[in-house]
Amino acid sequence: MGLKFEIKHKDPQTKARAGKITTDHGEIQTPIFMPVGTAGTVKAVHQRELKEDINADIILGNTYHLYLRPGTEILEKAGGLHKFNGWDRPILTDSGGYQVFSLAQTRKIKEEGVTFRSHIDGSKHLFTPERVMDIQRSIGADIIMAFDECPPYPSDYTYAKNSMQLTHRWLQRCVDRLDETVPLYGHHQALFPIVQGSTYKDLRTQSAEKIASFEREGNAIGGLSVGEPAEMMYEFTELCCDILPEDKPRYLMGVGTPANILENIALGVDMLDCVMPTRQARHGHVFTTQGIMNLKNKKWEDDFEPIDATLGGYASTFYSRSYLRHMFKANEALAGMVASVHNLTFYLWLVREARQHIIDGDFREWKNAIIPTLMQRL
Amino acid sequence: MGLKFEIKHKDPQTKARAGKITTDHGEIQTPIFMPVGTAGTVKAVHQRELKEDINADIILGNTYHLYLRPGTEILEKAGGLHKFNGWDRPILTDSGGYQVFSLAQTRKIKEEGVTFRSHIDGSKHLFTPERVMDIQRSIGADIIMAFDECPPYPSDYTYAKNSMQLTHRWLQRCVDRLDETVPLYGHHQALFPIVQGSTYKDLRTQSAEKIASFEREGNAIGGLSVGEPAEMMYEFTELCCDILPEDKPRYLMGVGTPANILENIALGVDMLDCVMPTRQARHGHVFTTQGIMNLKNKKWEDDFEPIDATLGGYASTFYSRSYLRHMFKANEALAGMVASVHNLTFYLWLVREARQHIIDGDFREWKNAIIPTLMQRL
């Protein structure tokens, strides 16, 4: 069956909504944060923890990484990514566009697609819209992304416009390819096109309208959170959300801090993902209900309280700050393991709290009251 | 209360015995393998996994590492290592002797003790038998080890003899210091002296007799598994076990492979520890009920069986060999995490099987039949 989206509640004071996405691998309560599992694993987190402790509704995989390693042949033999990594809830894969531009070497963009060299072994590859759809068929995610070009910030107007138009032409080819192929593993795959247009209002407007016109099962906003100021991000998120259809999920790609998450939800975003909680965790930075802590700091040396007693859960309450500081100082793997589970538990708590406050009708007051607490340095 | 040891069964065909050690932190079924938690953590393993999945009866901590980092002040403030790392079952700490000789820099051995420089920051330290007892009081393990010199293999006779005699003199000082101090956290700490004497029968005999004469609550055999052939290790284990008292636990330090574990149990050893299962795990080597696998090998690329269906348990059955190979090739932390839990689950399974076969009276046949399977390369 297709992807289904129902809006359950709309916040009266902001554009936030509480909804539910239904996929063949289960339901996603929105707004949702999606942990990033680049190479088929959310770094340093057991699948069991992701399900039972963090209770993620959906995780991401990266097409670029999975294509290079383990490759589509292994993924197909496994029966797709769900079978390969044992995650039986929904998965979303990006299209590899962003990684081709940020990680790969000697890339060349042509009308046909992008040639690049692998960051792993220097081998040469070509990504076309058609090829990227085929790869995502092999991976078998429930939600797959159109192949786009993500221009850097800042980009000049002409570059941004040409790039956006290329992304639109590529989208048509993605749609054509997807619609002439079938899923490999018996479950539906929904294609989300991506709004681009850099930080130009007329381009973003054009792009959002164009993307909406494809009438796919959900829509994404790309090319934000790439270095622009937060206020500019919010301005463009709002512009896009106001154009993208109300009755379909809106996915803001690669965002962000706890404050970014809440502000974008207020603008009508339903889905977000970011490497921040896991990447920061590996560097000792944890987000808590009381604020942000750097666990490597000497001030935690003899603090025997858990990371976050209020949040609850094993990782956040079993180990003391003192012990975790010791783990970080001693370069022990457990440090990143605990902090990663904690940060993801926090991010999922955050969007679930947001959802409840949308339902309760006090989302705006709650958001404005909690952001200064969540963003303070402890 | 003191440490209690009861022998439940003796194998009629070997010198193996099945027993039970009782400490203030609970019981240890012997023979037992003790996972090594160098810096207060068994590398890449959550405490919850150690308890619920691996079901370790007792873990090790390293005095040298814990003294350097986090240091005795933090450990005392925490209320000892059990409180610090959240492990509420028995803990054993080595004396740091081995690490001072293998890790520390510019060490100088004198009658008083050993001066050395930290491998972390080059700072200068002095370990005396008295200081090492005090540090182990601060750590608060249930079983603590005498400060010894562990000579390398091979050592010449004169060096080995002088070293052994120094170890014996240091033992008297350890005993004196321990007996004039009290535990800091209300639970009993049992001191195990260590037999040395390198690979000389007369020295090992002298040392075992001397160590036995102290009549402590358990005894250890050190200085083996340091590069000598396995047959030589077994010869000296047997020599020591035959002299050390029957009614006290015998701990063979730093051993070893699955075959080493079983052969030494057959000679009368009750306790063993080794970094092998966790260190090998991080390099992709796993021990299974069918043999040894290098998960990095291409042959597992499209093998979607779990590591070890027979063994059971989450780590050993949830993830496929193919997925784990991908995790190792992609340098994902999950690779070492899963393999570490698996290998320790296997080691604990191994000693529990051994115990059951001792009780059943068919330990020797079982051991001889299973060793070739366990040690074969898959």
TrEMBL record, chains A, B:
Give GO BP annotations, semicolon-separated: tRNA queuosine(34) biosynthetic process
Q: Where is the tRNA-guanine(15) transglycosylase-like domain?
A: 14-371
The enzyme class is: transferase
Binding sites annotated in the UniProt record for substrate:
D94, S95, G96, G97, Y98, D148, Q196, G223
* Annotated Gene Ontology cellular component terms: cytosol
Q: Does the keyword tRNA processing apply?
A: yes
Enumerate the catalysed reactions.
7-aminomethyl-7-carbaguanine + guanosine(34) in tRNA = 7-aminomethyl-7-carbaguanosine(34) in tRNA + guanine
The answer to keyword Membrane applying to this record is: no
- Record key words, sorted: Glycosyltransferase, Queuosine biosynthesis, Transferase, tRNA processing
Tell me which InterPro entries the record gives: ArchSynthase1/Queuine_TRR, TGT, TGT-like_sf, tRNA_ribo_trans-like
Q: What pathway is this protein a component of? A: tRNA modification; tRNA-queuosine biosynthesis
Which SUPFAM superfamilies does the entry link to? tRNA-guanine transglycosylase
**Which residues does the Swiss-Prot or TrEMBL record annotate as the active site?**
D94, D273
Subunit structure comment from the entry: Homodimer. Within each dimer, one monomer is responsible for RNA recognition and catalysis, while the other monomer binds to the replacement base PreQ1.
Q: Which family does it belong to?
A: Belongs to the queuine tRNA-ribosyltransferase family.
Q: What is this protein called?
A: Queuine tRNA-ribosyltransferase
From which source organism is this entry?
Flammeovirga pectinis
Organism taxonomic ancestry? Bacteria, Pseudomonadati, Bacteroidota, Cytophagia, Cytophagales
